[in-house]
Write a sequence for this structure.
């Protein structure tokens, strides 16, 4: 059952609300999602990518530890795409600050878009995003040997000097929507639109779908007692949920004062 | 050699000496231009900026310069709008300082954006919700106003003024100057505020985020307040430096003291409001986000001392000096107080940009630090050289200080 | 001339309007938009990928032996994306980091673009391009000459694998030619097959029914770090996670370091490196002592549990007596560093659990474990009676394919094949082992080799003790590489006959290591060859046809027809589905399942005796813990070095692509520096802090490294990532960090002769 198409605060029709649930107990930190994203979205690489402060990975897998010492230490990985923050009625941290509307909140899908050809590289959006989900193109994109052959025509390579980020593989949504329209359908089925990272994940740790649609897996998973979101207390209202049965992991997802109880 | 260009009745150093002086600053400017050149040609990979520090030295320099340049609009505001005639003898000079500050700021902004050729997208695809849009519009408009304010002064050059068309043109501009001053004051209040808003709206950054008052975060008002408190101090400082270098008294003491007094009381007001804001932030805003006040000052260089330096050493101490009769009349106290005030505002602009980004927000994220590289340093400091050149040229060839003849008979 | 206020304003407005409505600003804005997308100070443009008709081609990934089904998205004739195939029995849509980056192997750097003949000195990097016909004829001339000289047996072949039609073709080439020296690169599968042969009497791989197991006791296996068929194990692990939430499954990881596998496990048992067998036997002690074993299986279907008497009346020790006497929890605790109570607790849990399973093969399984270590761990499975049961282990046979015509052996071939193997495998020295790569570089080879063919392997990089390997291989006068890429080994060859990469060719993919059901995959050409390369099978056939006296064994027109013929009735299914799965397979019943001399599952490996291994000590035939004696003394090398294996770095013959390297943390690689992990306690003792540059020394070599402090590694242990430190390939790969194999030596297993070095003694001194 799909919830009624709702009128948003600004009179927009909110048709879908795409989001993710990432099971951190299943995530192995293998990094396949990172590379799946890079190869899907024409993200370039350079000879030395060891400086993580200038290395672009729309999906980045962070490593967290429980802070204890041997042998009580525990480790958990946090795969971090763009959270496609809804904020307060589409007032996501980055969208509201971009002076050129080069990043926008799409009320039809809930996806925070990025328009590289409009972006002029002020990086205000990067300052606004607490998740470090945004990446600046410090260099010209160059592909060695014949690697340009592997570029997908569905996603434009970005030029130097602009910001880019995860788009929830928006081109896949377009592909699915076009297909549905051609077949005379208004709705896109759950399996028709899946992101590249979700599809690749060898551990099936990522689930993607319409958070408002009762029949979609994400709708059920987000209600799990183990589900939480990153930095929820900031009011970013992210559409990426995480799940873990380990309480320290859930606590690691947000900031808490000493003695304060967490989820 | 260039005596025909020098205003009548004033003394200037020899042209050779002047050329040497300008030459020195020009070398620094060339160095800065080289820095700017590589950044424009090769891109921002030539800096130490990175994805964690999208904002760095340049934004700090921009915000600081604009705050320091606030003397221009605020003195104009006091002179033209409030009608305080005391400030008339310094109004030319503050316009020049303002022009230097704002043109520097725009140049640095043009460096700081990744796609300078697309800078105009900010106007063309303007997002009215963005504080940066407001900043861009106001600063550009105000820069035009400053240019218009500066032009008549340039046209008053002895030789230019002889041309009838020029004479009429500048005469006409003078007549409508109050309109521009008023426009400038309005624009400036707004962009100083929206610069504060740039940081204050970042609800993903607990260090920068401030609660809203009406449609603006409190930093909107704090930035205006701190800028108008500090601007006059910067005017005092630049005037005193100019006097030191020219070895002449150029502005009467009463003007300087009055500026100091205004600055002092504004600083007191600012510190009170800033303290209230900080307390609210520490007691309400931060705990709601799950962070404690001390979490915001975790490690060097961002320890609690940076706050103490900003509000204590560079706030309370100069404020006390400036509001006391004896303090502001004693040059040995006044100048350090002015310097401290200016450092204070630079610190404030620094923490609101760089510290705001340096503190990791995700619990599992790392603290990283950032140090600008040569290209950033040299371009950030270039306004000093640029300022020295423009002030020197203006001082030499334009009737900047109406009291100069009187004070140096 | 005078200008009134009115006139002035008119002038300003007029000028403004004039410029605004002229085409000038609009044209400039438009241009700047275009320039800013393409002009960046250098004449480089952002590429615009051409559009075209989209096709999805199904194949099987061969970048590791995992056998995943892949779907390649093509735009016209360009492959633009590799994805896992939905519904494939191994990976069902999932894909690993290496596979998803696979297009770099095709389009990326370091491809060998045509046949090359060495022009300068060995390894100098000077090559001459030659034609295929010239290359084949020169090489076959050389081979013919060696053959004529009566030294056929001195030609050897090193292959990355030994199953499938391509390795079989190489074997056939050697057999027809007259050499027994087909050498496959070592892995834990070697030991496992050996152990299985001894304990169950089957020539088969160990199949682990991970999907159905519910208590997984892993002895250092990197279950989610690339062990077995990586994606398949990831998926099993996710299923365990779902069950574990309900309290229905548990994973216990026994490993000196908190690897990803350990971190995801329900319990991490940080054991002293290399003592896994002792722990297994300690667990066996508790199980036996508390009579927790499966009585039906152990009493009715096992041999060597109780003491037994041979034909001559001599009483032999059984497993029971041995573990009870030698492996009490207290003794084992002293060896492994794990408390006695924990040992007892794990043993009890293991036996109480529904469908328990013990798994072995450290890390990805690239280094074989000792034979008796395998037996010790495998014995746990027997004790709980999970052999050939759901959720247990099983002997997994090869998928049957059409047999090839018998090899025509002339007199030279017969004489050559009657020679002992160069590596002494199958000889009196190592009667049960098939292939011993390490004998090559430890200088123990039976005779000198005169020619070497290398396919699908990169021993100059992947073998322990690089210096020794290089010395040994360099001494062979004639080396031919079939590598698609200019890897370390190809660099040292005399000829490179570049084969198609996996996306350019057909190949059968045999059942991956550890799988629970026999399956065969078909790798297919997805794109036309990018360069002047050939299918390795076609090259072998061509060599066979043109080498003196062996052409009769190579009557196929080409590899493709050979493959079709071999797959026979399965071909159509393979082409349609991409795989053929043996649906009829089920593990044999206990009563008929064991082809050992005793007809039972053997704790006491009488097969060893039968093969000619004679010992008066019964322990030599039983599972047991024999400390691996690492080179060097604890005085000069106070620490123990172990490898860190993760999927983010490929450490085998297929190297990383830049995409993988990009995902590696800056606590593993920073600029060109590699980081080794040490416990903060160890670091403090040796004056190291985060990032300290230090010299890592082992008896095998030394390397400059940086220290990374990590609480997840046992005090006294240094852990080094594998997969870095290439000296070949392109700038995106070479020169980064250190090859862990440079500082790890070799240790010979006394029974199998395999290199079982799981690490090394080491010292770490800050510089
Ligand atoms: N130090 C160390 N040594 C190891 C290992 C380790 O991890 N570390 N792993 C060990 C283990 S378990 C194994 S299985 C082996 C595996 O290592 P390899 O020994 O050799 O096996 P692959 O990685 O499958 O082989 C890839 C090589 O074959 C080429 N290639 C790629 N696709 C194809 C193809 O379709 N056909 C042909 N002919 N060549 C192809 C590549 O260019 C590359 O040269 O190495 C063993 N040795
Ligand atoms: S691919 Fe899946 S398992 Fe691997 S890091 Fe990403 S989310 Fe985790
Ligand atoms: S995660 Fe960052 S980039 Fe993505 S929507 Fe939220 S604030 Fe914007
Ligand atoms: S960098 Fe680009 S997307 Fe980000 S705020 Fe600036 S113009 Fe907008
Ligand atoms: S949703 Fe798409 S764009 Fe976003 S991280 Fe995943 S693969 Fe990348
Ligand atoms: S696990 Fe192996 S077979 Fe599967 S995709 Fe990865 S490299 Fe290819
Ligand atoms: Mo392997």
């Amino acid at each position: 059952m799909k919830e009624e198409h709702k009128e948003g605060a600004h009179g927009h029709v909110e048709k879908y609300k795409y989001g993710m649930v990432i099971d951190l107990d299943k995530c192995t930190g293998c990094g396949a999602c990172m590379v799946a994203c890079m190869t899907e979205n024409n993200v370039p690489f350079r000879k030395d990518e060891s400086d993580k402060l200038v290395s672009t990975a729309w999906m980045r897998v962070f490593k967290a530890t429980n802070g204890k010492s041997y042998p009580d230490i525990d480790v958990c990985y946090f795969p971090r795409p763009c959270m496609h923050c809804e904020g307060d009625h589409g007032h996501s941290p980055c969208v509201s600050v971009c002076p050129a509307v080069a990043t926008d909140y799409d009320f039809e899908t809930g996806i925070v878009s990025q328009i590289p050809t409009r972006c002029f590289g002020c990086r205000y959006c990067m300052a606004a995003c607490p998740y470090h989900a945004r990446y600046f193109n410090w260099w010209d994109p160059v592909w060695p040997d014949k690697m340009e052959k592997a570029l997908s025509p569905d996603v434009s390579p970005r030029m130097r000097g602009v910001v880019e980020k995860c788009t929830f593989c928006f081109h896949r949504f377009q592909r699915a929507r076009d297909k549905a329209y051609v077949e005379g359908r208004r709705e896109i089925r759950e399996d028709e639109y899946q992101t590249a990272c979700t599809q690749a994940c060898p551990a099936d740790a990522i689930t993607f779908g319409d958070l408002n649609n009762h029949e979609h897996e994400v709708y059920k998973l987000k209600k799990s007692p183990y589900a939480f979101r990153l930095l929820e207390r900031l009011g970013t209202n992210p559409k990426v949920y995480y799940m873990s049965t380990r309480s320290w992991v859930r606590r690691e997802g947000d900031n808490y004062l000493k003695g304060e109880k967490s989820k | 050699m260039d005596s025909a260009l020098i205003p009548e009745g004033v003394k200037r150093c020899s042209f050779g000496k002047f050329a040497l002086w300008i030459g020195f600053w020009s070398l620094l400017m060339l160095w800065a231009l080289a820095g700017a050149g590589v950044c424009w040609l090769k891109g921002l990979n030539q800096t130490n900026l990175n994805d964690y520090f999208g904002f760095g030295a340049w934004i700090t320099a921009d915000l600081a310069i604009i705050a320091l340049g606030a003397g221009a609009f605020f003195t104009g505001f006091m002179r033209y709008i409030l009608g305080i005639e005391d400030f008339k003898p310094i109004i030319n000079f503050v316009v020049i300082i303002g022009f230097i500050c704002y043109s520097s700021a725009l140049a640095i902004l043009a460096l700081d954006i990744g796609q300078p050729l697309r800078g105009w997208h900010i106007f063309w695809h303007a997002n009215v919700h963005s504080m940066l849009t407001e900043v861009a519009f106001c600063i550009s408009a105000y820069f035009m106003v400053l240019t218009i304010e500066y032009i008549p002064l340039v046209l008053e050059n002895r030789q230019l003024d002889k041309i009838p068309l020029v004479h009429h043109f500048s005469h006409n501009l003078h007549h409508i100057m109050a309109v521009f001053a008023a426009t400038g004051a309005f624009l400036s209040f707004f962009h100083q505020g929206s610069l504060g808003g740039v940081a204050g709206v970042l609800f993903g950054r607990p260090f920068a985020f401030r609660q809203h008052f009406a449609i603006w975060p409190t930093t909107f008002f704090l930035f205006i307040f701190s800028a108008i408190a500090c601007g006059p101090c910067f005017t005092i400082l630049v005037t005193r430096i100019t006097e030191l270098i020219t070895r002449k008294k150029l502005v009467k003491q009463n003007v300087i003291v009055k500026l100091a007094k205004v600055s002092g009381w504004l600083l007191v007001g600012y510190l009170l409001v800033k303290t209230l804001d900080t307390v609210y932030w520490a007691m309400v805003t931060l705990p709601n986000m799950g962070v404690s006040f001390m979490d915001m000052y975790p490690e060097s260089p961002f320890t609690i001392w940076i706050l103490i330096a900003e509000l204590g050493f560079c706030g309370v101490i100069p404020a006390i000096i400036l509001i006391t009769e004896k303090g502001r009349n004693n040059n040995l106290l006044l100048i350090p107080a002015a310097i401290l005030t200016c450092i204070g505002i630079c610190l404030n602009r620094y923490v609101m940009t760089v510290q705001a980004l340096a503190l990791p927000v995700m619990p599992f994220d790392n603290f990283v630090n950032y140090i600008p590289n040569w290209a950033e340093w040299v371009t950030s400091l270039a306004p000093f050289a640029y300022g020295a050149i423009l002030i020197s040229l203006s001082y030499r060839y334009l009737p900047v200080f109406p009291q100069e003849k009187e004070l140096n008979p | 001339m005078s200008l009134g206020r009115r006139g002035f304003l008119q002038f300003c407005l007029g000028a403004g309007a004039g410029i605004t409505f002229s085409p000038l600003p609009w044209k400039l804005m438009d241009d700047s938009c275009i320039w800013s997308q393409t002009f960046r100070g250098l004449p480089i443009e952002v590429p615009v990928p051409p559009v075209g008709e989209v096709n999805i081609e199904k194949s099987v990934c061969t970048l590791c032996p995992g056998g995943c089904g892949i779907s390649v998205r093509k735009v016209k004739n360009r492959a633009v994306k590799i994805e896992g195939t939905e519904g494939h029995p191994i990976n069902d849509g999932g894909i690993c980091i290496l596979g998803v980056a696979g297009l770099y192997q095709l389009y990326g750097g370091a491809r060998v673009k045509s046949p090359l003949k060495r022009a300068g000195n060995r390894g100098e990097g000077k090559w001459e391009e030659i034609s295929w016909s010239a290359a084949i004829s020169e090489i076959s001339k050389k081979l013919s000459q060696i053959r004529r000289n009566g030294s056929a047996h001195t030609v050897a072949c090193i292959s990355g694998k030994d199953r499938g039609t391509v390795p079989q073709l190489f074997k056939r080439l050697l057999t027809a030619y007259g050499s027994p020296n087909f050498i496959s690169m070592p892995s834990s599968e070697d030991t496992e097959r050996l152990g299985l042969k001894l304990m169950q009497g089957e020539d088969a791989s160990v199949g682990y029914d991970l999907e159905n197991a519910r208590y997984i006791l892993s002895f250092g296996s990197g279950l989610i770090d690339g062990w077995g068929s990586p994606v398949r194990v990831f998926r099993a692990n996710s299923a365990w996670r779902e069950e574990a939430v309900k309290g229905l499954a548990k994973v216990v990881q026994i490993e000196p370091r908190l690897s990803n596998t350990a971190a995801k496990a329900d319990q991490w048992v940080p054991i002293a490196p290399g003592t896994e067998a002792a722990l297994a036997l300690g667990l066996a002690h508790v199980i036996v002592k508390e009579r927790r074993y499966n009585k039906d299986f152990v009493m009715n279907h096992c041999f060597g549990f109780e003491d037994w008497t041979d034909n001559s009346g001599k009483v032999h020790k059984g497993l029971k007596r041995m573990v009870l006497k030698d492996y009490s929890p207290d003794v084992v605790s002293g060896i492994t560093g794990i408390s006695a109570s924990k040992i007892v607790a794990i043993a009890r849990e293991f036996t109480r659990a529904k469908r328990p399973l013990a798994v072995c093969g450290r890390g990805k399984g690239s280094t074989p474990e000792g034979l008796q270590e395998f037996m010790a761990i495998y014995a746990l499975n027997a004790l709980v009676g999970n052999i050939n049961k759901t959720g247990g282990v099983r002997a997994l046979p090869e998928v049957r394919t059409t047999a090839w015509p018998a090899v025509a052996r002339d007199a030279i071939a017969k004489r050559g094949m009657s020679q002992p193997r160069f590596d002494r495998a199958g000889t009196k020295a190592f009667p049960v082992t098939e292939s011993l790569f390490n004998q090559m570089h430890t200088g123990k080879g039976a005779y000198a080799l005169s020619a070497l063919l290398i396919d699908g392997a990169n021993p100059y990089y992947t073998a322990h003790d690089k210096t020794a390997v290089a010395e040994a291989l360099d001494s062979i006068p004639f080396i031919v590489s079939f590598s698609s890429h200019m890897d370390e080994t190809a660099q040292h060859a005399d000829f490179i006959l570049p084969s198609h990469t996996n996306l350019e060719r057909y190949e059968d993919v045999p059942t991956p290591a550890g799988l629970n059901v026999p399956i065969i995959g078909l790798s297919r050409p997805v794109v036309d060859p990018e360069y002047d390369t050939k299918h390795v099978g076609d090259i072998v056939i061509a060599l066979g046809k043109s080498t003196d006296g062996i052409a009769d064994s190579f009557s196929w027109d080409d590899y493709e027809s050979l493959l079709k013929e071999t797959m026979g009735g399965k071909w159509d299914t393979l082409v349609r589905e991409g795989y053929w799965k043996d649906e009829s397979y089920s593990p044999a019943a206990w009563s008929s399942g064991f082809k050992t001399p005793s007809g039972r599952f053997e704790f006491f490996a009488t097969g060893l005796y039968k093969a000619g291994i004679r010992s008066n000590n019964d322990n030599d035939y039983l599972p047991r813990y024999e400390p691996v004696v690492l080179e060097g003394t604890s005085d000069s090398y106070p620490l123990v070095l172990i490898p860190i294996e993760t999927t983010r770095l490929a450490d085998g013959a297929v190297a990383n692509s830049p995409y993988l390297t990009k995902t590696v943390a800056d606590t593993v690689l920073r600029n060109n520096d590699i980081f080794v992990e040490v416990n903060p306690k160890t670091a403090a003792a040796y004056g190291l802090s985060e990032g300290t540059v230090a010299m890592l020394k082992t008896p095998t070599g030394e390397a400059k490294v940086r220290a990374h402090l990590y609480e997840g590694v046992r005090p006294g242990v240094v852990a080094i990532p594998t997969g870095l430190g290439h000296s070949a390939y392109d700038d995106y790969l070479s020169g980064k960090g250190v090859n862990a194999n440079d500082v790890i030596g070799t240790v010979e297993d006394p029974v199998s002769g395999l290199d079982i070095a799981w690490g090394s003694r080491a010292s770490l001194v800050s510089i």
Observations:
- Chain C has four domains: 28-107, 116-189+421-581, 210-391+588-621, 639-766.
- Chain C has a mean pLDDT of 93.
- The domain at 116-189+421-581 of chain C is CATH 3.40.50.740 (Rossmann fold).
- Residues 5-21 of chain C form the longest helix (17 residues).
